[in-house]
Amino acid sequence: MQQGLRLLLSYAGSGSSMLAASASQLITFALLARYLGSEQFGLYAIITALTNVAVQLCGIGSSEALIRRSAQNPDDYPPLLGHTIILSVVSSVVLVIAGLIIMPMTVTIAPDPWVATRTSLLILISNIVLLKVVSIATSAYIAHSRFAVANAIEFGFAILRTLTAFMACLVFSTSTVADWAFWHFGLHVVIAVVAMWSLTYLGKPKFVFVREEFMNGVFFSTQFLFKALRQNADLLVLNALAGAEIVGSYSVARRILESSYLAIEALNRLVYPGSAKAAKVGMVALLHRTRKVLLASLAVSTASALAIFVLAPLLPWLFGDDYPSLITFTRVLCFVLIPMAIYASAMEALGAAGRQGTRAAIFNTANFFGAGLVALMTWQGGINGTFASYYIVEIAIAIANWAALVHYARQSVASRDVDAAGAVDADTVRKAKKENA
Hints:
Elements: H1 2-57, H2 62-72, H3 77-106, H4 113-143, H5 147-171, H6 177-199, H7 211-241, H8 244-260, H9 262-281, H10 283-311, H11 315-319, H12 326-333, H13 337-352, H14 356-436
């Protein structure tokens, strides 16, 4: 009873912090949509999409190993933290340079090359380097099961982000991406300094390259590349077929869906260290635990989807009257949260068991072929084809992940039975030899 209460309180804290982060993102998104105008806001949305992929690649998935290994054995924390910092520094330099090359080929930020380069650099450093610092700090505290501190960092970030958006848009009338980049950079500098300071309380890193975790990190990080491929395929085809309002409303509806997923992510973040410990006991114990997590995930995702469906008519008040399709699109997409919650519980369990290769194979394959399916169905059926393909891909990922998890559990039982049978046979042989003697 007490353990359940502690878990509920931890989830309330974690969920509240991530809900605040979600609300902050939504408010910031709405403010920028209103005050930057459709052209500048569209530009910022493309830049954000590019950097969102980059920040997931930064560190090459090393934060997952930091949480998993430290939860299983606290003595692994110093080398895993050093491993994470090394890979984050090296990859962030590569990603920022690549971003400075790719960004001008993708979007025109400003007519003046110096302004465009300066803006790109500020946003790239903010969204990749500084945001990764914050991510490492929260991962480190989650690895120690100190969720209250991780929540405090994210909650502070959320509040500061909202205040920054209000100041920039309402007080200083920021109207271009180039102007917003300065505010955005300053915000991330402040929170990154706080995050680095907080890390000192957990102990010093040991700067080593943990070779056996590198490929796990590669498998983990590639999932975001293929997910981005699928998520950009529909936008590209819709942009060619539909008007700006359809594309804009769909983009906002998808952002709402992604923000709402944070409630499920809060639960997964809370149970991940415990799942890593259960994985050391065996796959059967992990499967038993994951089934309980699934029930909680279904409850959270269903409640979130229903809340979005009911509150959707309020969205024009927040985003303005330029998005008349927004209510319908949001209501159609909101129930995608349920298959997402189903596959997330199994995916996190596979990750906690160190099965990153299997997890990546399922997710990457589904998103690779899903990108083609999304493009084809969008081309043939317009926005309705986009919606249908979204559900098909998410349901397929859910089925595949749970099938893999159950397979490993059964394989574990079969292996244990073979070992037991072998022990019995060996004992029988020994008895027979003794009797013959």
